[in-house]
Amino acid sequence: MRDMLEVVSKGGKVNKTKIVYGANLNFERASRILDWLIGKGLVMEKSDRYAITEKGKEILREIYKLAALFK
């Protein structure tokens, strides 16, 4: 999930192929996670392109904070 949010946040509006390769996932798994991220309002889809939402950016920042605690 974090890797996918990172790819989408850095790439602006990206297609599924870029997400799959950037997050090192297969298409089936990426599709399921993307559906979940969209359902939770973290990513939005428009014309087969994906972009991170403000809520997604907030969650990604919190993930980075948590990761820093365990380093």
Query: How many DSSP E strands?
Result: 2
Distance between the termini: 19 Å
Order of helices and strands: HHHEEH
C-alpha geometry: globular
Classify the fold: give the CATH topology: Arc Repressor Mutant, subunit A
In percent, how much strand structure appears in the residues? 5-15%
Percentage of helical residues? 55-70%
Order of neighbouring strands in the sheet with most strands: 1-2
Quick overview of this protein structure:
Helices cover 66% and strands 11% of the residues.
Features:
single chain, 71 residues, mainly alpha, Arc Repressor Mutant, subunit A, two-stranded antiparallel ribbon, 4 helices, 66% helix, 11% strand
Question: What can you see in these coordinates?
Answer:
- The protein is mainly α and 71 residues long.
- It has a single domain, classed as Winged helix-like DNA-binding domain superfamily/Winged helix DNA-binding domain (Arc Repressor Mutant, subunit A), CATH 1.10.10.
- It contains 4 helices and 2 strands.
- The protein has helices spanning 2-11, 16-23, 27-39, 54-69; strands spanning 43-46, 49-52.
- Strand 1 and strand 2 (49-52) form a beta hairpin.
- Helix 1 crosses helix 4 (54-69).
- It is globular and about 35 Å long.
